[in-house]
Amino acid sequence: MSETFDLILKNGTVHTPGGAESVDVGVRGGKIAAIGSGLGDAGEVIDCTGLDVLPGCIDSQVHFREPGLEYKEDLESGSRAAVLGGITAVFEMPNTNPNTDSAERVREKLDRAHHRMWCDHAFYVGATADNAEALKELERIPGTAGVKIFMGASTGSLLVDDDAALSRVLASGTRRVAIHAEDEARMNARKDLRVEGDPSSHPVWRDDESAMIATQRIIGLARKARRRIHILHVTTPAELEYIARNKDIATCEVTPQHLTLAAEDAYPRLGSYAQMNPPIRSAAHRDGLWHWLAQGVPDVLGSDHAPHTIEEKAKPYPNSPSGMPGVQTLVPLLLNHVAEGRLSLRRFIELTSSGPQRVFGLVGKGRIALGYDADFTVVDLKKRWTVGSDWLASRCNWSPFEGMELTGKAVGTIIRGHRVMWEDALANEAVGEPVRFEATEFA
């Protein structure tokens, strides 16, 4: 007697832990229930002929601006952009208004997100000098991705920049701590290097050394505290070389924009739309990131999706805010790099699925295997297309990659067996649920 399933994905190239296979995938109760051929009947069958079925892609750094800054983005619009781009889960950052720095504010975000966000989700708790001792409890709230430290000032008011306060934060808790590593003291001393009206001076002000000093400081403090850390949006080859010597305690992230854009072209062409923290740097920096990516040093990709309105970005530098949208373009940008031979599809899967699972201790996500959540990013590796404004869903309504011709696109986003997006069309309702972590499930 043949089995019955809620959903079967048929005729695709399925990327399991064993590699690419021409098999079907059966889904029951939101979980992967069978992988093979001739699986039987299903309530829904999706024909994936000519398509690749990847584990659901996870973006572990987004800023969706809710509460307090919803005119830039909110949890619904940001997550809608995510699933249109092939993302099945996101980790959202705490620099909202008010900051996400207490149990009450974490739970408020979780309540706001429930079945209003299109993708699964987790929320970071922002570290402050005032809540340091409470973090060991806050990081255990189900639905939290852990603790985030801003060592250098960026959008919002979260900042922990002195060694004493950093040590207190690192001493409170056990989960891996996410770090924005730029040295506040050095950047304050270099503010006069900003040139009014010239965003190309942004990486001169927030220079390589600002990043390297902070990375070295936090790794040293983490060693003393015996605390694992995760360094976000690394922009310099020197940092990656240093992190490579400290992988026992430090994991790290790179972003699609730092792998794609270069200062020599980006600032003349995009102006303040290329402005972010840490900055877009030179082509030599970009090529250096690719070198260390090939060496296996970065663990994950994150978009650092950080939208601002067109009116805000149009202000003359340095009054223009730092940040750019990116959650919707993460998958296609990297698939384009795959098409160009710079990145293997296996490494892409590692950076967007199995890497986040390993680094953050996710439960049931990150691979196509029996018993795991039925999360799939279905892609057409050969599709040639142009990023257009009509495709973009972020409330800010712009992208530094608008007009870019790409090869490769997500044609389907399936989350716990729900077909949330297919060929740019959304489902009738959002089904986002909190991501589960080993640290909170089994605490």
UniProtKB/TrEMBL annotation:
Record InterPro entries: Amidohydro-rel (IPR006680), DHOase/Allantoinase_Hydrolase (IPR050138), Dihydroorotase_CS (IPR002195), Metal-dep_hydrolase_composite (IPR011059), Metal_Hydrolase (IPR032466)
Entry keyword set: Hydrolase, Metal-binding
Q: Name one GO molecular function term.
A: allantoinase activity
Cofactor(s) demanded: Zn(2+)
Q: Which GO terms describe its cellular component?
A: cytoplasm
Q: Which domain of life is it from?
A: Bacteria
The residue ranges of the Amidohydrolase-related domain are 53-420
Fetch the Gene3D superfamilies from UniProt. Answer: Metal-dependent hydrolases
Record GO biological process: purine nucleobase catabolic process
Its EC number is 3.5.2.3
Q: Which SUPFAM superfamilies match?
A: Composite domain of metallo-dependent hydrolases, Metallo-dependent hydrolases
Q: What is this protein's function per UniProt?
A: Catalyzes the reversible cyclization of carbamoyl aspartate to dihydroorotate.
Family, per the entry? Belongs to the metallo-dependent hydrolases superfamily. DHOase family. Class I DHOase subfamily.
The identity of this protein, by name, is Dihydroorotase
Organism this protein belongs to: Sphingobium quisquiliarum P25
Q: Mind giving the lineage of the organism this protein is from? A: Bacteria, Pseudomonadati, Pseudomonadota, Alphaproteobacteria, Sphingomonadales
